[in-house]
C-alpha cells in the first residue's frame, strides 16, 4: 500500500511539472507569434 502511495505521489508531481512546462511553451509560442505579426505589420507600412 505504501509503494502505491509513493508511486501516486510521484506521478502527481510529474504531471504537475508537465502542465507547467506545456503552459510555458504555449506562452512562448504566443509571444513569438505576436512578434512575427508586429514585424509583418511594420513591413507593410
Short structural description:
It contains one helix and no strands. The protein has 45 residues and is mostly helical. It starts with a helix and ends with a helix.
What does this structure look like?
It is a single chain. This protein is mainly alpha-helical. It has one helix and no strands. It has one helix at 2-44. The termini are far apart. The relative contact order is 0.08.
Shape: rod-shaped
**Order of SSEs:** H
Instruction: Report the strand count.
Output: 0
Strand content: under 5%
Quaternary status? single chain
- Average the pLDDT over all residues and give the rounded result: 80
Figure out the total of helices.
Answer: 1
Measured on Cα atoms, how large is the radius of gyration? 20 Å
Helix content: over 70%
- SSE class: mainly alpha
Cα distance spanning the termini:
67 Å
User: Low-confidence stretches at least 5 residues in length (pLDDT < 50)?
Assistant: none
The biggest sheet, with number of strands, parallel, antiparallel or mixed sense and barrel status, is: none
Amino acid at each position: 500500500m505504501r509503494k502505491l502511495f509513493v508511486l501516486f505521489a510521484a506521478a502527481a508531481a510529474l504531471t504537475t511539472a508537465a502542465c507547467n512546462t506545456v503552459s510555458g511553451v504555449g506562452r512562448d509560442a504566443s509571444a513569438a507569434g505576436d512578434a512575427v505579426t508586429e514585424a509583418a505589420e511594420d513591413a507593410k507600412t
